[in-house]
Protein backbone atom coordinates (compact mmCIF):
# COMPACT_ATOMS: atom_id res chain seq x y z
CA UNK A 1 0.00 0.00 0.00
CA UNK A 2 1.45 3.46 -0.90
CA UNK A 3 1.10 6.90 0.69
CA UNK A 4 -1.93 7.85 -1.44
CA UNK A 5 -3.75 4.72 -0.35
CA UNK A 6 -3.18 5.64 3.32
CA UNK A 7 -4.90 8.98 2.90
CA UNK A 8 -8.04 7.27 1.55
CA UNK A 9 -8.48 5.27 4.75
CA UNK A 10 -10.51 6.91 7.47
CA UNK A 11 -8.89 6.41 10.85
CA UNK A 12 -11.58 6.03 13.45
CA UNK A 13 -10.22 7.38 16.72
CA UNK A 14 -13.30 6.22 18.62
CA UNK A 15 -12.35 2.56 18.44
CA UNK A 16 -12.99 0.48 21.52
CA UNK A 17 -10.49 -1.53 23.57
CA UNK A 18 -10.71 -4.16 26.28
CA UNK A 19 -7.91 -5.43 28.50
CA UNK A 20 -7.57 -8.88 30.08
CA UNK A 21 -4.90 -9.12 32.75
CA UNK A 22 -3.13 -12.24 34.00
CA UNK A 23 -0.41 -12.64 36.60
CA UNK A 24 1.14 -10.38 39.20
CA UNK A 25 0.42 -6.93 40.63
CA UNK A 26 2.95 -5.43 38.20
CA UNK A 27 0.68 -6.52 35.35
CA UNK A 28 -2.33 -4.99 37.13
CA UNK A 29 -0.40 -1.70 37.38
CA UNK A 30 0.76 -1.90 33.75
CA UNK A 31 -2.79 -2.60 32.54
CA UNK A 32 -3.98 0.59 34.26
CA UNK A 33 -1.23 2.53 32.49
CA UNK A 34 -2.11 0.89 29.14
CA UNK A 35 -5.69 1.94 29.70
CA UNK A 36 -4.63 5.56 30.31
CA UNK A 37 -2.40 5.55 27.22
CA UNK A 38 -5.24 4.18 25.08
CA UNK A 39 -7.80 6.65 26.45
CA UNK A 40 -5.29 9.49 25.97
CA UNK A 41 -5.13 8.56 22.28
CA UNK A 42 -8.89 8.62 21.80
CA UNK A 43 -9.77 4.94 22.28
CA UNK A 44 -12.80 4.07 24.40
CA UNK A 45 -12.79 1.39 27.09
CA UNK A 46 -15.25 -1.46 26.47
CA UNK A 47 -15.94 -4.31 28.89
CA UNK A 48 -17.73 -6.61 26.44
CA UNK A 49 -15.18 -8.50 24.33
CA UNK A 50 -17.86 -9.18 21.70
CA UNK A 51 -18.22 -5.45 21.06
CA UNK A 52 -14.59 -4.41 21.30
CA UNK A 53 -12.35 -3.53 18.34
CA UNK A 54 -9.12 -4.25 20.18
CA UNK A 55 -8.39 -6.85 22.84
CA UNK A 56 -5.18 -6.35 24.81
CA UNK A 57 -4.09 -9.47 26.69
CA UNK A 58 -1.53 -8.66 29.37
CA UNK A 59 0.10 -12.03 29.84
CA UNK A 60 2.00 -14.00 32.47
CA UNK A 61 4.56 -16.68 31.71
CA UNK A 62 5.65 -17.64 35.21
CA UNK A 63 3.95 -21.04 34.94
CA UNK A 64 2.71 -23.03 31.97
CA UNK A 65 -0.98 -22.80 32.88
CA UNK A 66 -1.42 -19.00 32.68
CA UNK A 67 0.78 -19.01 29.58
CA UNK A 68 -1.50 -21.49 27.83
CA UNK A 69 -4.60 -19.51 28.72
CA UNK A 70 -3.42 -16.86 26.24
CA UNK A 71 -4.20 -19.22 23.35
CA UNK A 72 -7.60 -20.20 24.73
CA UNK A 73 -8.52 -16.53 25.27
CA UNK A 74 -7.54 -15.68 21.66
CA UNK A 75 -9.55 -18.61 20.28
CA UNK A 76 -12.55 -17.88 22.45
CA UNK A 77 -12.69 -14.17 21.61
CA UNK A 78 -12.10 -14.70 17.89
CA UNK A 79 -14.98 -17.19 17.76
CA UNK A 80 -17.30 -14.51 19.17
CA UNK A 81 -15.78 -11.45 17.51
CA UNK A 82 -14.03 -12.36 14.26
CA UNK A 83 -12.75 -8.85 13.41
CA UNK A 84 -11.13 -8.08 16.77
CA UNK A 85 -7.48 -6.95 16.78
CA UNK A 86 -5.44 -8.93 19.28
CA UNK A 87 -2.58 -7.29 21.16
CA UNK A 88 -0.35 -9.54 23.25
CA UNK A 89 1.42 -7.60 25.97
CA UNK A 90 3.50 -8.62 29.00
CA UNK A 91 5.87 -11.49 29.66
CA UNK A 92 4.64 -13.98 27.05
CA UNK A 93 4.98 -11.24 24.41
CA UNK A 94 8.56 -10.55 25.44
CA UNK A 95 9.54 -14.22 25.61
CA UNK A 96 7.87 -15.61 22.53
CA UNK A 97 7.82 -12.57 20.27
CA UNK A 98 6.74 -13.05 16.68
CA UNK A 99 5.94 -16.74 17.18
CA UNK A 100 2.67 -15.43 18.61
CA UNK A 101 1.57 -14.23 15.15
CA UNK A 102 0.93 -17.90 14.38
CA UNK A 103 -1.47 -18.02 17.36
CA UNK A 104 -3.50 -15.11 15.98
CA UNK A 105 -1.81 -12.03 17.48
CA UNK A 106 -1.83 -8.79 15.45
CA UNK A 107 0.48 -6.80 17.71
CA UNK A 108 3.10 -7.96 20.19
CA UNK A 109 4.25 -5.44 22.79
CA UNK A 110 6.96 -6.16 25.36
CA UNK A 111 6.61 -4.70 28.87
CA UNK A 112 8.83 -1.65 28.22
CA UNK A 113 6.94 -0.41 25.18
CA UNK A 114 3.35 0.34 26.08
CA UNK A 115 3.66 4.04 25.23
CA UNK A 116 4.08 2.92 21.61
CA UNK A 117 0.80 0.99 21.52
CA UNK A 118 -1.34 3.72 19.86
CA UNK A 119 1.25 4.23 17.11
CA UNK A 120 1.56 0.45 16.60
CA UNK A 121 -2.23 0.23 16.31
CA UNK A 122 -2.48 3.06 13.79
CA UNK A 123 0.33 1.55 11.71
CA UNK A 124 -1.46 -1.78 11.76
CA UNK A 125 -4.71 -0.04 10.83
CA UNK A 126 -3.12 1.77 7.91
CA UNK A 127 -0.91 -0.93 6.49
CA UNK A 128 -2.41 -4.17 7.79
CA UNK A 129 1.10 -5.19 8.93
CA UNK A 130 1.43 -7.24 12.05
CA UNK A 131 3.85 -5.53 14.42
CA UNK A 132 6.09 -6.53 17.30
CA UNK A 133 8.00 -4.21 19.61
CA UNK A 134 10.12 -6.03 22.11
CA UNK A 135 13.59 -4.65 22.78
CA UNK A 136 14.52 -4.13 26.39
CA UNK A 137 17.09 -1.81 27.82
CA UNK A 138 15.06 1.36 28.13
CA UNK A 139 14.66 1.88 31.86
CA UNK A 140 11.62 4.18 31.62
CA UNK A 141 8.85 3.58 34.12
CA UNK A 142 5.36 4.51 33.00
CA UNK A 143 4.05 7.09 35.45
CA UNK A 144 0.59 6.98 36.92
CA UNK A 145 -1.17 10.08 35.65
CA UNK A 146 -4.67 8.83 36.39
CA UNK A 147 -7.17 11.17 37.97
CA UNK A 148 -8.90 8.12 39.47
CA UNK A 149 -9.12 7.78 43.24
CA UNK A 150 -7.59 4.56 44.59
CA UNK A 151 -7.78 3.45 48.22
CA UNK A 152 -4.45 1.68 47.83
CA UNK A 153 -2.06 2.49 44.99
CA UNK A 154 0.59 0.19 43.54
CA UNK A 155 3.86 2.03 42.89
CA UNK A 156 6.57 0.13 41.00
CA UNK A 157 10.03 0.92 42.33
CA UNK A 158 11.91 -1.65 40.28
CA UNK A 159 11.69 -3.71 37.11
CA UNK A 160 13.29 -7.00 36.25
CA UNK A 161 15.44 -9.29 38.37
CA UNK A 162 19.10 -10.32 38.56
CA UNK A 163 18.65 -13.35 40.77
CA UNK A 164 18.17 -16.05 38.18
CA UNK A 165 16.47 -18.54 40.51
CA UNK A 166 16.76 -21.80 38.59
CA UNK A 167 13.01 -22.24 37.99
CA UNK A 168 12.14 -18.64 37.14
CA UNK A 169 11.47 -17.10 33.76
CA UNK A 170 11.19 -13.53 35.10
CA UNK A 171 14.80 -12.44 34.42
CA UNK A 172 14.35 -13.56 30.78
CA UNK A 173 10.92 -11.94 30.47
CA UNK A 174 11.44 -8.71 32.38
CA UNK A 175 15.16 -8.22 31.88
CA UNK A 176 17.83 -7.16 34.37
CA UNK A 177 16.96 -5.36 37.58
CA UNK A 178 16.46 -1.63 37.14
CA UNK A 179 15.61 0.68 40.04
CA UNK A 180 13.19 3.53 39.54
CA UNK A 181 14.74 6.88 40.49
CA UNK A 182 13.77 8.23 43.91
CA UNK A 183 12.32 11.50 42.54
CA UNK A 184 9.99 9.61 40.18
CA UNK A 185 8.74 7.39 42.99
CA UNK A 186 8.19 10.40 45.22
CA UNK A 187 6.36 12.26 42.48
CA UNK A 188 4.01 9.33 41.99
CA UNK A 189 3.38 9.00 45.74
CA UNK A 190 2.44 12.70 45.84
CA UNK A 191 0.25 12.27 42.76
CA UNK A 192 -1.83 9.42 44.21
CA UNK A 193 -2.00 10.97 47.69
CA UNK A 194 -3.33 14.19 46.14
CA UNK A 195 -6.11 12.07 44.61
CA UNK A 196 -6.96 10.67 48.07
CA UNK A 197 -4.93 7.45 48.31
CA UNK A 198 -3.94 6.54 51.84
CA UNK A 199 -2.06 3.28 51.24
CA UNK A 200 1.15 3.06 49.21
CA UNK A 201 1.94 -0.43 47.93
CA UNK A 202 5.51 -0.60 46.62
CA UNK A 203 6.15 -3.17 43.90
CA UNK A 204 9.21 -4.93 42.55
CA UNK A 205 10.50 -8.46 41.91
CA UNK A 206 12.99 -7.98 44.73
CA UNK A 207 12.24 -4.66 46.45
CA UNK A 208 14.96 -5.16 49.06
CA UNK A 209 17.66 -4.56 46.48
CA UNK A 210 16.25 -1.21 45.33
CA UNK A 211 19.29 0.94 44.48
CA UNK A 212 19.07 4.52 45.64
CA UNK A 213 20.05 6.82 48.46
CA UNK A 214 19.47 5.08 51.81
CA UNK A 215 18.47 1.81 50.16
CA UNK A 216 15.00 0.31 50.46
CA UNK A 217 14.64 1.02 54.20
CA UNK A 218 15.59 4.65 53.51
CA UNK A 219 12.99 4.86 50.76
CA UNK A 220 10.26 3.62 53.10
CA UNK A 221 11.36 6.07 55.75
CA UNK A 222 11.18 8.99 53.29
CA UNK A 223 7.78 7.96 51.93
CA UNK A 224 6.42 7.70 55.44
CA UNK A 225 7.19 11.39 56.07
CA UNK A 226 4.72 12.41 53.34
CA UNK A 227 1.54 13.76 54.82
CA UNK A 228 -1.46 11.80 53.62
CA UNK A 229 0.45 8.49 53.43
CA UNK A 230 -1.17 6.46 56.18
CA UNK A 231 -0.08 2.95 55.31
CA UNK A 232 2.88 1.44 53.45
CA UNK A 233 3.22 -2.12 52.14
CA UNK A 234 5.55 -3.78 49.71
CA UNK A 235 6.16 -6.97 47.80
CA UNK A 236 8.17 -9.06 46.94
CA UNK A 237 11.09 -9.61 49.30
CA UNK A 238 13.96 -11.99 48.77
CA UNK A 239 15.11 -13.63 52.05
CA UNK A 240 18.78 -13.21 51.08
CA UNK A 241 18.41 -9.45 50.69
CA UNK A 242 16.41 -8.43 53.77
CA UNK A 243 18.52 -5.82 55.56
CA UNK A 244 18.74 -5.22 59.33
CA UNK A 245 17.55 -1.66 58.60
CA UNK A 246 14.35 -3.00 57.05
CA UNK A 247 13.71 -5.28 60.01
CA UNK A 248 14.24 -2.29 62.32
CA UNK A 249 11.77 -0.26 60.26
CA UNK A 250 9.04 -2.74 61.18
CA UNK A 251 9.70 -1.83 64.82
CA UNK A 252 9.92 1.94 64.56
CA UNK A 253 7.82 3.04 61.61
CA UNK A 254 4.14 2.84 62.45
CA UNK A 255 3.10 3.53 58.85
CA UNK A 256 4.83 0.33 57.71
CA UNK A 257 2.11 -2.28 58.04
CA UNK A 258 2.81 -5.51 59.96
CA UNK A 259 2.77 -7.80 56.94
CA UNK A 260 5.71 -9.37 55.12
CA UNK A 261 5.47 -11.58 52.05
CA UNK A 262 8.67 -13.61 52.24
CA UNK A 263 8.72 -16.45 49.70
CA UNK A 264 10.40 -19.53 51.19
CA UNK A 265 9.97 -21.71 48.04
CA UNK A 266 11.34 -24.82 49.80
CA UNK A 267 12.21 -25.91 53.33
CA UNK A 268 15.09 -28.15 52.18
CA UNK A 269 18.60 -26.69 51.96
CA UNK A 270 19.46 -29.15 49.21
CA UNK A 271 16.56 -27.91 47.08
CA UNK A 272 17.18 -24.25 48.00
CA UNK A 273 20.73 -24.70 46.69
CA UNK A 274 19.47 -26.36 43.51
CA UNK A 275 16.98 -23.49 43.11
CA UNK A 276 19.92 -21.03 43.52
CA UNK A 277 18.02 -19.17 46.22
CA UNK A 278 21.19 -18.05 48.07
CA UNK A 279 19.91 -18.79 51.60
CA UNK A 280 19.35 -21.80 53.81
CA UNK A 281 16.45 -22.57 56.10
CA UNK A 282 18.41 -21.46 59.22
CA UNK A 283 18.86 -17.99 57.73
CA UNK A 284 15.15 -17.86 56.92
CA UNK A 285 14.22 -18.84 60.49
CA UNK A 286 16.58 -16.16 61.81
CA UNK A 287 14.75 -13.51 59.81
CA UNK A 288 11.40 -14.81 61.05
CA UNK A 289 12.57 -14.78 64.67
CA UNK A 290 14.19 -11.35 64.43
CA UNK A 291 11.22 -9.78 62.79
CA UNK A 292 8.77 -11.33 65.23
CA UNK A 293 10.84 -10.17 68.18
CA UNK A 294 10.68 -6.62 66.81
CA UNK A 295 7.05 -6.69 65.63
CA UNK A 296 5.17 -9.46 67.40
CA UNK A 297 1.92 -8.82 65.53
CA UNK A 298 3.47 -9.23 62.06
CA UNK A 299 1.70 -11.57 59.62
CA UNK A 300 3.98 -13.56 57.33
CA UNK A 301 2.92 -14.95 53.96
CA UNK A 302 4.86 -17.07 51.51
CA UNK A 303 5.23 -18.73 48.11
CA UNK A 304 6.08 -22.43 47.91
CA UNK A 305 7.03 -24.61 44.95
CA UNK A 306 6.57 -28.37 45.33
CA UNK A 307 8.11 -30.96 43.05
CA UNK A 308 11.21 -29.03 41.96
CA UNK A 309 13.48 -31.42 39.97
CA UNK A 310 15.14 -33.89 42.32
CA UNK A 311 12.80 -33.14 45.27
CA UNK A 312 12.60 -36.29 47.42
CA UNK A 313 9.90 -37.21 49.89
CA UNK A 314 12.32 -36.12 52.63
CA UNK A 315 12.86 -32.69 50.98
CA UNK A 316 9.10 -32.23 50.69
CA UNK A 317 8.67 -33.20 54.36
CA UNK A 318 11.10 -30.39 55.28
CA UNK A 319 8.97 -27.90 53.34
CA UNK A 320 5.80 -29.24 54.95
CA UNK A 321 7.31 -28.97 58.45
CA UNK A 322 8.69 -25.46 57.84
CA UNK A 323 5.31 -24.19 56.60
CA UNK A 324 3.59 -25.73 59.59
CA UNK A 325 6.13 -24.34 62.08
CA UNK A 326 6.30 -20.79 60.69
CA UNK A 327 2.51 -20.42 60.95
CA UNK A 328 2.04 -18.33 57.83
CA UNK A 329 -1.19 -16.39 57.54
CA UNK A 330 -1.23 -16.73 53.74
CA UNK A 331 0.41 -19.06 51.25
CA UNK A 332 0.58 -19.26 47.47
CA UNK A 333 1.71 -22.76 46.56
CA UNK A 334 2.45 -24.18 43.14
CA UNK A 335 3.51 -27.36 41.42
CA UNK A 336 6.89 -26.79 39.78
CA UNK A 337 6.31 -25.89 36.14
CA UNK A 338 9.17 -26.26 33.69
CA UNK A 339 9.82 -22.98 31.85
CA UNK A 340 11.83 -22.45 28.69
CA UNK A 341 15.36 -21.02 29.03
CA UNK A 342 15.61 -21.65 32.76
CA UNK A 343 18.38 -23.66 34.44
CA UNK A 344 15.91 -26.03 36.10
CA UNK A 345 14.33 -27.05 32.80
CA UNK A 346 17.60 -28.82 31.93
CA UNK A 347 18.03 -30.52 35.33
CA UNK A 348 17.63 -34.28 35.69
CA UNK A 349 15.02 -36.04 37.84
CA UNK A 350 11.86 -34.14 36.99
CA UNK A 351 9.02 -35.18 39.29
CA UNK A 352 5.87 -36.73 37.87
CA UNK A 353 2.67 -34.66 37.76
CA UNK A 354 1.06 -37.24 40.00
CA UNK A 355 3.61 -36.84 42.79
CA UNK A 356 3.63 -33.04 42.43
CA UNK A 357 -0.16 -33.05 42.71
CA UNK A 358 -0.12 -35.29 45.77
CA UNK A 359 2.45 -33.11 47.56
CA UNK A 360 0.61 -29.90 46.70
CA UNK A 361 -2.68 -31.29 48.01
CA UNK A 362 -1.04 -32.49 51.20
CA UNK A 363 0.59 -29.10 51.82
CA UNK A 364 -2.54 -27.12 51.03
CA UNK A 365 -4.78 -29.37 53.12
CA UNK A 366 -2.53 -28.88 56.15
CA UNK A 367 -2.41 -25.13 55.56
CA UNK A 368 -6.17 -24.73 55.09
CA UNK A 369 -6.88 -26.77 58.20
CA UNK A 370 -4.51 -24.68 60.30
CA UNK A 371 -5.34 -21.17 59.07
CA UNK A 372 -8.74 -20.63 60.77
CA UNK A 373 -7.25 -21.47 64.17
CA UNK A 374 -4.32 -19.09 63.55
CA UNK A 375 -6.72 -16.30 62.64
CA UNK A 376 -8.72 -16.88 65.84
CA UNK A 377 -6.20 -14.65 67.68
CA UNK A 378 -7.83 -11.62 66.03
CA UNK A 379 -11.28 -12.42 67.42
CA UNK A 380 -12.37 -9.97 70.10
CA UNK A 381 -9.74 -7.40 69.04
CA UNK A 382 -10.56 -3.89 67.81
CA UNK A 383 -8.60 -3.47 64.59
CA UNK A 384 -7.99 -0.44 62.40
CA UNK A 385 -9.36 -1.26 58.97
CA UNK A 386 -8.85 0.62 55.71
CA UNK A 387 -12.24 0.48 54.00
CA UNK A 388 -12.25 -0.59 50.33
CA UNK A 389 -16.02 -0.60 49.65
CA UNK A 390 -19.00 -2.91 49.84
CA UNK A 391 -18.29 -6.61 50.32
CA UNK A 392 -18.21 -8.71 47.17
CA UNK A 393 -21.36 -10.65 48.15
CA UNK A 394 -23.56 -8.18 50.02
CA UNK A 395 -23.69 -4.46 49.15
CA UNK A 396 -24.90 -3.65 52.67
CA UNK A 397 -21.83 -5.20 54.27
CA UNK A 398 -18.52 -3.31 54.04
CA UNK A 399 -15.10 -4.71 53.19
CA UNK A 400 -11.62 -3.57 54.13
CA UNK A 401 -8.08 -4.62 54.97
CA UNK A 402 -6.53 -5.08 58.38
CA UNK A 403 -2.94 -3.91 59.03
CA UNK A 404 -1.91 -7.56 58.50
CA UNK A 405 -3.49 -7.39 55.01
CA UNK A 406 -6.37 -9.72 55.85
CA UNK A 407 -9.68 -9.03 54.19
CA UNK A 408 -12.39 -8.23 56.71
CA UNK A 409 -16.10 -7.91 56.02
CA UNK A 410 -18.04 -5.95 58.59
CA UNK A 411 -21.45 -4.67 59.52
CA UNK A 412 -21.93 -0.94 59.80
CA UNK A 413 -24.85 1.49 60.10
CA UNK A 414 -23.25 3.66 57.41
CA UNK A 415 -23.46 3.16 53.67
CA UNK A 416 -20.27 1.15 52.89
CA UNK A 417 -19.62 3.41 49.90
CA UNK A 418 -19.47 6.47 52.15
CA UNK A 419 -16.65 4.88 54.18
CA UNK A 420 -14.35 4.11 51.27
CA UNK A 421 -10.77 5.23 51.99
CA UNK A 422 -11.38 5.80 55.69
CA UNK A 423 -9.54 3.94 58.44
CA UNK A 424 -12.02 2.86 61.10
CA UNK A 425 -12.03 0.64 64.17
CA UNK A 426 -13.69 -2.74 63.70
CA UNK A 427 -14.30 -5.37 66.33
CA UNK A 428 -13.42 -8.79 64.92
CA UNK A 429 -16.14 -11.27 65.78
CA UNK A 430 -15.61 -14.35 63.64
CA UNK A 431 -13.28 -16.15 61.28
CA UNK A 432 -15.07 -17.34 58.14
CA UNK A 433 -12.54 -19.62 56.38
CA UNK A 434 -9.99 -17.08 55.08
CA UNK A 435 -11.78 -13.86 55.89
CA UNK A 436 -12.47 -12.12 59.13
CA UNK A 437 -15.91 -10.87 59.98
CA UNK A 438 -16.63 -7.98 62.32
CA UNK A 439 -18.68 -5.04 63.34
CA UNK A 440 -17.89 -1.30 63.25
CA UNK A 441 -17.18 0.05 66.75
CA UNK A 442 -19.90 2.54 67.83
CA UNK A 443 -17.53 5.49 68.23
CA UNK A 444 -15.37 5.17 65.14
N1 LIG B 1 7.03 -23.19 38.62
C1 LIG B 1 6.20 -23.04 39.69
N2 LIG B 1 6.12 -21.91 40.38
C2 LIG B 1 6.90 -20.87 40.02
N3 LIG B 1 7.05 -19.63 40.53
C3 LIG B 1 7.96 -18.97 39.78
N4 LIG B 1 8.41 -19.76 38.79
C4 LIG B 1 7.77 -20.95 38.93
C5 LIG B 1 7.82 -22.18 38.21
N5 LIG B 1 8.63 -22.33 37.16
C6 LIG B 1 6.35 -19.18 41.73
C7 LIG B 1 7.33 -18.83 42.83
C8 LIG B 1 7.29 -17.33 42.85
C9 LIG B 1 5.86 -17.07 42.44
C10 LIG B 1 5.58 -15.69 41.95
O1 LIG B 1 5.63 -18.01 41.42
O2 LIG B 1 6.86 -19.37 44.05
O3 LIG B 1 7.60 -16.78 44.12
FE1 LIG C 1 12.19 -15.07 39.85
FE2 LIG C 1 13.96 -15.46 41.84
FE3 LIG C 1 13.82 -13.04 40.61
FE4 LIG C 1 11.81 -13.85 42.21
S1 LIG C 1 13.94 -13.45 42.86
S2 LIG C 1 11.62 -12.92 40.15
S3 LIG C 1 11.77 -16.04 41.87
S4 LIG C 1 14.45 -14.99 39.67
Task: Kindly provide the name of the CATH class of the largest domain.
Answer: Alpha Beta
Name of the CATH architecture of the largest domain? 3-Layer(aba) Sandwich
Individual helix count: 13
Give the neighbour order of strands across the main sheet: 2-1-3-4-5-6
Distance between the termini: 67 Å
How many domains comprise the coordinates?
3
How much beta, percentage-wise?
Answer: 15-25%
Instruction: Report the bound ligands by name, code or SMILES.
Output: 5'-deoxyadenosine, iron/sulfur cluster
How is the biggest beta sheet arranged? Answer: 6 strands, parallel
Number of strands: 19
Can you tell me the CATH topology of the largest domain?
Answer: Rossmann fold
Quote the average pLDDT: 93
Can you tell me the CATH superfamily of the largest domain? Answer: Cobalamin-binding domain
Supply Rg. Answer: 23 Å
Query: Any low-confidence stretches, pLDDT <50, length ≥5?
Result: 1-10
Q: What structural class is derived from the secondary structure elements? A: alpha/beta
Residues in helix, %: 25-40%
In one word, what is the shape?
A: globular
Amino acid sequence: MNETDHSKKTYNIKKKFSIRTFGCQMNVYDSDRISEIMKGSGYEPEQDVEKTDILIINTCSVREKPRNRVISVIENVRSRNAGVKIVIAGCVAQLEGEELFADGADIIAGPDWYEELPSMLSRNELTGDRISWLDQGDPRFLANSSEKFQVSAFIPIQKGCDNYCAYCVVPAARGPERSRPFEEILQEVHHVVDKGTSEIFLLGQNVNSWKGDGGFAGLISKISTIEGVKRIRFTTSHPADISPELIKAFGNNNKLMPWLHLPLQSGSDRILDAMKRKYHIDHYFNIVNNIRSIRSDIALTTDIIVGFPGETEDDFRKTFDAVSKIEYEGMFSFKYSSRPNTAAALMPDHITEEIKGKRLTELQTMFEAKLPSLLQKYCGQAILVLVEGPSLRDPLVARGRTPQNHVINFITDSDPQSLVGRIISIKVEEVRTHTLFGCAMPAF
